[in-house]
Amino acid sequence: MEALFSSTLAVAIAEIGDKTQLLALFLAARYGRPYLISLGVLVATLVNHALSAWLGAWLVDVIPPHWVPWIISGSFVAIALWLLVPDKEDDDLGRFANYGPFVATLVLFFLAEIGDKTQIATVILAAKYSADFWMTIAVITGTTLGMLIANIPVIFAGKWIMDRLPLNIARKAAFVLFLLLAVLTLVQMT
User: Fold this and answer.
1) Entry pTM
2) Could you give the CA distance from residue 173 to residue 14 in angstroms, rounded to a whole number?
């Protein structure tokens, strides 16, 4: 339960104001098909975060055990600092825009997640909770839920929400959350 809850919370907060959330806003504005865009976000996130979680679980098996808590904690601190830097808007959807809302969302969301804060957080969370197969599944489920919690409202009520959401406060809250995860990781794993 801890893996599911912390993964959901970490990604939901980290995603606020992220480039993929801005992408969801642009896709919703362009296509006006919130259900298809939401389905594209779900499928892209499941595939991306499943691959990321398996990478995190694998890394824990190949890294010397005494390094793992320090690497995970350091990674949480790095993400915390990265979260303080706002993402830039990029409204060019490229050639994938011609394939309709589901395919455009699926491809663009998957590609935008590569190397993104939430993908790296998924790798780190999976490494932290890599005790068994079900913990990894809990991380994948949690990070996917976090992405949906942050993006579905934007897809359905994008501009109205973005005008009222204090992104600076959300970034600072995410910063504190990831610092807390770093400290908890050291306390629990050492």
Assistant:
1) 0.76
2) 9
